[in-house]
Amino acid sequence: MDVYLPIANLSVNGLVIVLLGAGTGILSGLFGVGGGFLTTPLLIFYGVPPTVAAASAASQVTGASVSGVLAHRKRGGVDPQIGGVMVVGGIIGAGIGAGLFRLLQSWGQIDTVINILYVVLLGTIGGLMGRESIGTLRASRTGAPRRAARRRHHPLVASLPLRWRFYKSGLYISPLAPLILGVVVGILTMLMGVGGGFILVPAMLYILGMSAQVVVGTSLFQILFVTVATTMMHALTTRAVDIVLAGLLLIGSVTGAQIGTRLAGTAKPELLRLVLALIVLAIALRMAFGLGVRPDAVYTVIEL
């Protein structure tokens, strides 16, 4: 089932792209991540240009997030108040990221920067996630009680002014903290096509100190609106969004998100995190290898 991608200017197997989107959707429902941090590298491995992969993955993440948000909202797992603050920060960050994207694109370095960012971020996140999961699994096998980490916001967050009370998250902190977090995620979303959930979820737990019951749903809430804004900015500035590619990914991701949400309540969390960590590390190593190998085409000509 070959499908032609007009912006990427290549033919792909449509079924493979749909299945890739389904895998992304399952991750979205399981972990509260948009899944773009895996979609973009896999599309690059498949032969899609990094700029098109990043821009199109951002629009695909929107579909997976809509499905996931609706499922978590029914369970009361979304804090729209703190999520709204992060959305504002995310839109500001997306604007900054759009400027950086165009600048790097004009220098001819955007593909390299995208690959380097993925190697650094995926390697770091995968390593931390794997270490935490292995520690939890060892503790459960030996029967030794694993001391639960205290849910408390970071001292830097406590030092910020203008405190608000976020009732559903159980927080009394400055709105500047989630705003800054949203800006960082917005920049990454624009540059890398990621939803940012793989950074948002641990940051919301260990930096903001949010209640675990609303972290996943609120993360997806923020991802939903920021990826919408990012897609619009890409369409207007970089013109790298391939609507055919995004549509194929959406078909799989919307269904996958519902499956992932159901699995989240039955599967063993620490084992799932370990599997995800291994996948993330494998992709980081593959991208690092690609950065050090001489490409088939040493020179490429693009139209800006």
Automatic annotation (TrEMBL):
Pfam family, one: TauE
UniProt keyword Cell membrane, yes or no: yes
Keywords carried by this UniProt record: Cell membrane, Membrane, Transmembrane, Transmembrane helix
Family matches, as InterPro entries: TM_pro_TauE-like, TSUP/Inactive_protease-like
The keyword Transmembrane helix is assigned to this record: yes
Membrane topology of this protein: Multi-pass membrane protein
Lineage per the UniProt record: Bacteria, Pseudomonadati, Pseudomonadota, Alphaproteobacteria, Sphingomonadales
Main location: membrane
Cell location: Cell membrane; Membrane
Descriptive protein name: Probable membrane transporter protein
TM regions (residue ranges): 12-38, 82-101, 113-130, 171-199, 205-228, 240-259, 271-289
